[in-house]
Specification:
mainly beta; 4-stranded antiparallel β-sheet; 11 strands; globular
């Protein structure tokens, strides 16, 4: 069955770094664009970053531009989010999402908690 499993979350200090991973299975990973979203307590889920099927195109929310880097490895069926210069406002549950513009299918992971605090 389709699975997206996030990992790499945890506690970081302000100014620190974390690297999130999302491992995909059960579908043809290279056919899907991949996105990271996040949801802070009491707030709506928001877009963070996206990467094209080939990995050649990326796009970021203004709030993370220049601090976060999204990448993917189609050989490993994985997408990553390198998060640098973390701030308390980055605290949220981070989700990866797979999207196919060809079929309209989309899948979500279960999320991983990121907490930025001193």
């Amino acid at each position: 069955q389709v699975q997206l499993v996030e990992s790499g979350g945890g506690l970081a200090q302000p100014g620190g770094s974390l690297r999130l991973s999302c491992a995909a299975s059960g579908f043809t990973f290279s056919y899907y664009g991949m996105r990271w979203f996040r949801q802070a307590p009491g707030k709506e889920r928001e877009f963070v970053a996206s990467v094209s099927r080939s990995g050649g195109g990326t796009y970021y929310a203004d709030s993370v531009q220049g601090r976060f880097t999204i990448s993917r490895d189609n050989a490993k069926n994985s997408v990553y989010l390198q998060m640098n210069s973390l701030q308390p406002e980055d605290t949220a549950v981070y989700y990866c999402k797979a999207e196919s513009t060809m079929t309209g299918l989309e899948y979500w992971g279960q999320g991983t908690q990121v907490t930025v605090s001193s």
